[in-house]
Specification:
The protein is built from 17 helices and 10 strands. It has 358 residues and is an alpha/beta fold. An 8-stranded mixed sheet has the order 2-1-6-3-7-8-10-9.
Length: 358
């Protein structure tokens, strides 16, 4: 973390951020695989480091509600408890699939109590805060984003069911590519900032954000032209690219998404943009953006060993098997080739736009 970034953060934010950095660089974290037991260990390490435990909201909950709930409603669950409740699946994959969801809030200044937008720092904004009203809404009045997430969850599970039945899924890239099991009782759990970060005190969870990204098997984004301009959206992609094994392969969940069977996913190559140049609703967030970007760029978490041992091989047995077959160390060469420069403007992301209405 740069000196200027450190000076702009509070002591508590700085302390939590440094704990997160040390944890991500530790041998215990590095040696945790991407299978069920590795994810379980990483979630334990987050708690042991004194960081806020990771919480998630299930696809089933989203479907029952028909909307994305706010953190104070209490629909989020502990990620470690959810993981253990489902247990390991095929090849020690986790039946509880953790999905990181990056998105732009649709109505960041909307105040339901006053029934209008309240610009940051305005008299209306101050009045809303004094009255205890919540400000902000991640979705539109018709819950378009929630509906798309629900439909995407159904699509993802159907793709896995095809894979389990020996059929070729329309995406042709799921299954073990993401360390995801093809179990019939698989459940998706989303990390979404609105329900999973305490909206009255977001700083502690923001400090642990790199760790939350790193434990997720799937990265998804509500990509749009507006999304690509936002600093928070950019920094989430940079962190996913730096810390998550699947971070360079992002599923795009468009509004209006429907669970329809189409030929294949549409693939696009997108260059990572610099979060420092991104737009912010509250410019006081700029030091946090700079700090998270610095942590991602300086990270050593995504290494050749991690790619070779955890991305190519979902268990130690498979690792030994492939090394016996590849005595020329082709796995190591491929891992070296896949190692990524996460600097904005240099790293790239492959976005996968799931079948949607055309």
């Amino acid at each position: 973390m740069t000196r200027s970034a450190k000076e702009a953060l509070s002591e508590s934010q700085l302390a939590l951020g440094e704990r997160c950095e040390r944890m991500l660089a530790s041998r215990a974290w590095q040696h945790a695989n991407v299978n069920y037991f590795g994810v379980e260990r990483r979630l334990e390490l987050i708690v042991e480091a004194g960081l806020p435990p990771m919480t998630v909201v299930s696809a089933t909950t989203l479907e029952e509600l028909g909307r994305i709930p706010r953190s104070n409603e209490g629909y989020q669950v502990d990620a470690l408890s959810a993981l253990r409740a489902h247990g390991p699946g095929i090849v020690n994959g986790s039946k509880a699939v953790l999905v990181f969801y990056s998105h732009r809030w649709k109505r960041p200044m909307w105040c339901p109590g006053l029934n209008k937008d309240v610009p940051w720092g305005s008299e209306d904004f101050k009045s809303a805060k004094e009255l205890g009203y919540a400000v902000g809404d991640v979705d539109g009045p018709d819950h378009e984003k929630a509906r798309a997430l629900i439909e995407w969850s159904k699509w993802f599970k159907r793709e896995q069911a095809w894979f389990r039945e020996g059929k070729i899924p329309s995406g042709a890239l799921l299954g073990n590519t993401y360390g995801v099991p093809v179990d019939a009782d698989m459940e998706l759990y989303f990390w979404i900032d609105w329900p999973c970060v305490d909206q009255s005190n977001p700083s502690p969870s923001m400090a642990a954000l790199p760790a939350y990204v790193a434990v997720c098997s799937v990265i998804s984004a509500a990509w749009s032209e507006e999304y690509s301009r936002r600093a928070w959206c950019r920094v989430e992609l940079v962190m996913a690219h730096a810390f998550a094994v699947a971070g360079q392969k992002v599923f795009v969940i468009e509004e209006g998404f429907r669970d329809e069977r189409q030929k294949a996913l549409k693939k696009e190559i997108v260059t990572l943009d610099d979060p420092a140049d991104g737009a912010l609703t509250n410019d006081l967030d700029r030091p946090v953006i700079n700090s998270l970007t610095s942590v991602a760029i300086s990270s050593r978490t995504f290494s050749c060993r991690v790619v070779c041992c955890t991305n190519s091989c979902v268990s130690w047995h498979f690792f030994c098997f492939w090394n016996l077959l590849c005595c020329c160390q082709c796995c190591g060469l491929c891992a070296w080739y896949q190692s990524r420069d996460v600097r904005p403007g240099h790293g790239t992301v492959v976005t996968k736009i799931a079948p949607a209405h055309q």
